[in-house]
Design a protein that fits this description.
Glutaredoxin; alpha/beta; 15% strand; 13 helices; 5-stranded mixed beta sheet; 45% helix; 6-stranded mixed beta sheet
Length: 479
């Protein structure tokens, strides 16, 4: 009997999965015959039953989550179609597209973890990547291309490596010795999928391709600024993740408003040192040129590499965005803390923008001897607290589900307890504090004595009045 029930249950589940897969629209893939003629005219609507990335299969999916009444969602749709059309026209990669109305069912947005609309997400190899930039920016196309084609690439010749060096400022490379180390390759591939937008990841089986091959293999290297640095940490995902974040930029990269999100990463332990100069190189004065040279030398020396990342900005837009105020004059130098949103501007005075003066300024900031400006707003504080609590609960639920559930319910109980206390404090009437027992007895005795004294006086007055009236009667009788 139990066997029949199990078979029936499996049959129902397989039928439901088949209906769900059949309800998913077919992938918009160009055929070999009409690649050049394919024009994206509409985005297929996905069913609301898709609540997990595993239901989409193993392919690459680009999905637009929207709501019909949202004006921003309506504005994002043409840019979404344009990005897909560009990828199809240039035959960059094959991907499936779709859009989903999160207002179809109550609670659908919460199940899909959609906080705002529109939200553009790309699913690849079971991982979901959310686009956090401007929908109308050209960066959307490069983001889609980077995520959709991201992988650990095998380098087999010196020519391939030189071509990659010319096209990329930073290269991460795992070097094996004719045989792939499964543990290193698995950890490296996992971190590369999480940081697909933070770097270019390669691996090779022939160490002789490098100019100076490492003596001990396997070895994880980063190639940037003409220098090769080796990873010396343990074989763990979190340590490798932090190392890649700290090495993902060149010595002095250029930042703008479009790519500012590449530098403002809250998980990055580094502080950012911004140098703002004029956009026009020919119009830069001597002070600006000296400042650029001094910062370049200081960044290349890697004296503050473990804690600071130097960034060059052309114009004042980035600095004014971070300072939240207008800035006048070039050059401008400031140290910005990504986690706390506090910054410290450089007041050079008579020292100028020399290497020694900038080093002294950074040392003063490191020792907290200079006043801080800015800071997070109230909304940013609330968002940061929410993200912190959410990440802690999510991580605990992932690794220890029972402990995470108990902690979540305990936290909910504490929150409900304080809410009830707050409601009682608002609705509770003000009461006069009760006197002590001795004082209460003394007051009661005083009231009793006063009452008895009043009654006695009243009785004496009545008796006196009666005696006076009787004497007057007798006197009248005698008359």
């Amino acid at each position: 009997m139990k066997t029949l029930l199990v078979c029936a249950l499996l049959l129902c589940v397989s039928m439901a999965v088949g209906e769900m897969n059949s309800s998913i629209p077919s992938e918009e893939k160009p055929s070999k015959e009409n690649k050049e003629k394919l024009v994206i005219t509409r985005i297929p609507e996905l069913p609301a039953s898709i609540t997990k990335p595993g239901m989409l299969g193993n392919g690459v999916w680009l999905i637009l989550y929207y709501t019909p009444w949202c004006a921003y969602s309506q504005d994002a749709l043409p840019h979404f179609v344009a990005a897909v059309q560009y990828i199809v026209d240039h035959n960059i990669t094959e991907l499936s597209i779709g859009k989903l109305d999160v207002s179809k069912q109550p609670g659908l947005g919460q199940q899909l973890n959609i906080r705002t609309t529109p939200t553009i997400a790309l699913y690849r190899q079971g991982y979901r990547h959310n686009y956090d930039g401007d929908v109308g920016s050209p960066y959307l196309i490069s983001w889609v291309v980077r995520i959709a084609t991201a992988n650990v690439t095998l380098v087999e010749s010196r020519e391939e490596l030189e071509a990659l060096k010319n096209n990329h400022d930073v290269l991460f490379m795992l070097v094996h010795d004719s045989k792939v180390d499964s543990d290193w390759h698995k950890t490296y591939s996992k971190v590369s999928r999480q940081l697909a937008l933070r770097g270019t990841f390669l691996y090779m089986l022939d160490p002789e391709i490098l100019d100076s091959p490492p003596s001990k293999l396997p070895a994880l290297l980063v190639l940037k600024d003409g220098v090769t640095q080796r990873y010396g940490g343990a074989l763990a995902s979190h340590t490798l993740y932090k190392w890649i974040l700290s090495e993902r930029h060149s010595a002095l990269p250029t930042a703008a408003l479009d790519n500012l999100t590449h530098f403002i990463v809250h998980s990055d332990p580094k502080r950012l040192v911004f140098l703002a100069v004029d956009k026009d190189v020919s119009s830069r004065r001597v002070a600006q040129r000296k400042a650029v040279e001094a910062v370049k030398k200081l960044a290349a020396s890697r004296k503050f590499h473990s804690s600071y990342q130097f960034v060059l900005t052309e114009g004042l837009e980035v600095v004014e965005r971070l300072m939240r105020r207008a800035v006048d004059g070039y050059p401008q130098l400031m140290v910005y803390n990504v986690r706390t949103a506090y910054y410290t501007p450089y007041c050079h005075g008579d020292k100028g923008f020399t290497e020694s003066a900038i080093m002294e300024f950074i040392n003063l900031v490191e020792n907290s001897k200079l006043p801080l400006e800015g800071g997070p707003t109230l909304l940013e504080r609330v968002q940061h607290f929410y993200k912190l609590v959410y990440s802690m609960i999510r991580g605990t639920l992932t690794h220890h589900p029972y402990i995470g559930a108990a902690a979540g319910f305990s936290l909910m109980g504490v929150v409900v307890f304080y809410i009830v206390l707050a409601c009682q404090s608002f609705t509770k009437r003000t009461k006069v504090p009760r006197p002590s027992r001795v004082r209460a007895r003394a007051i009661a005795n005083h009231h009793d004595n006063a009452t008895l004294r009043h009654r006695t006086n009243h009785h004496h007055s009545n008796s006196d009045n009666q005696s006076e009236s009787s004497e007057e009667e007798e006197h009248l009788k005698d008359k």
